[in-house]
Amino acid sequence: MAEDMCKLTIGPYTMHFSGYQPENTQQKQFCEDIPATGQTIVVLDYIEQELRTLPAEVRIIKDTGTESNLETDTVFNLPAKVYPNGSIDFAYTFDKPGKFVGIVTVGDKKEHVSKFPFSVGEPKFYTKFLNIYMFPVAAVLIVLGIVFFMRDRKPSQTVAS
What we know:
Layout: E1 7-10, E2 13-20, H1 22-25, E3 29-30, E4 38-46, E5 55-62, H2 70-73, E6 74-82, E7 87-94, E8 98-106, E9 112-120, H3 125-150
Antiparallel strand pairs: 1-2, 2-3, 2-4, 4-7, 5-6, 5-8, 8-9
């Protein structure tokens, strides 16, 4: 559990986060950024048994940099309730790519909160970097290759008759 990248810490409690996109990635699981828009299934599995007796709420909001207008920015809300089976699951369809924040609140007084930013349908930094610089780098490599192979060639001599 210590090395689990899909672990969500909520106060003294932990949950295991799993996401799936059956239409896009079939059975492939993810727990960070969501690879594409479309239907997404999220599963939060409780690690501690104590969580089974506490109400939990899940909310997804647009990442606007502030939470001052929580109701307007909310795109999905699963109201607080007790999940005695130890697992919360829901489906949501992301229509547009963008940045979001997941908020999980646990406790009778909503005293334990975990917030985690994520993106939907946006390439990772290195993919953006490759897309932006791939063409110029490839062009320079081709020119260098041509210069390298042409420098050792001797000009052809014309034969005088």
